[in-house]
Write a structure and sequence with these properties.
It comes from Streptomyces himastatinicus ATCC 53653. InterPro entries: Beta-lactam/transpept-like, Glutaminase. The protein is α+β, with helices and mostly antiparallel strands. The chain has one domain: 3-Layer(aba) Sandwich (Beta-lactamase), CATH 3.40.710. It contains 14 helices and 7 strands. The longest helix has 15 residues. The radius of gyration is 17 Å and the shape is globular. It binds 6-diazenyl-5-OXO-L-norleucine (DON).
Length: about 300
Amino acid sequence: MHYQDVLDEVAAHVAPHIGRGQVAQYIPALAAVDPDRFGIALADVDGNVTGVGDWERPFSVQSISKAFGLALVLAQDGEKLWRRVGREPSGNPFNSLVQLEHENGIPRNPFINAGALVVTDRLHSLTGDASTTMLDFLRAESGNPDLAFDPVVAESESGHGDRNAALAHFMASYGNLDNPVPTVLEHYFWQCSIEMSCRDLALAGGFLARHGLRADGSRLLSRREAKRVNAVMLTCGTYDAAGDFAYRVGLPGKSGVGGGIIAVIPGRCTLCVWSPGLDARGNSVAGVAALDHFTTVTEWSVF
Ligand code: DON
């Protein structure tokens, strides 16, 4: 299969969807992003990468960082994480508070904001600097040493972070955070603010397609752990739209309110698509449409 031709065909197909939806408004620095951007990249398991459109233009990774956080904690800490966070879909919005009280401060999964705060807390305890650990990992895997935090986005999110602060304090009241709430929030906001392109993210997510092997051939995750991260991405990676994403795309995926989505075809490749217009559940409209069309034309869903 000629990847460039497939991606060109996908880009042509989704052109009518580009600009649809709403750019995230609740983080003011993200509201300024041009809604008409679209890019898609594919990195095969050998690290060859190809793309179309705005595939080399950096954007805010936001919740896509949660997939990397989960992998980094599983790599160092194994299954112990599951005592502090579940792995069931929440069926609720990514920033919802409602289940936490009934479920004793244990978030449903590592990809809703509450779960990601617990993962960040654990990564911080394990490494002494959660956000820098993630940035260093993403630089190494993408082969792009220029990757950086965006301080404007991090500040913007911190200044409008009451919901995440509420989640963190609530979990702290149940003893489910080891570090002080302001520290956990700071590292969470910084990791969400990392700027990467589709190219960078497709390469950085390569270990998920290589059953846990990093770009340099060393092992980050066992095959079983890589399977588990992909499984949680399939069931929880697009929040209360995970069922629809599985139905349309049929791949493990992780979205972010910056408009990016990574998707994994285990054993074959990692994709990243970006277009900032979001649907009501916080997933890129053109991004989901592109992945839907990609798996339709290639017949490469996991189903
Ligand atoms: O905490 C937040 O709300 C954002 N930093 C990330 C949310 C997000 O990306 C949800 N994904 N679709």
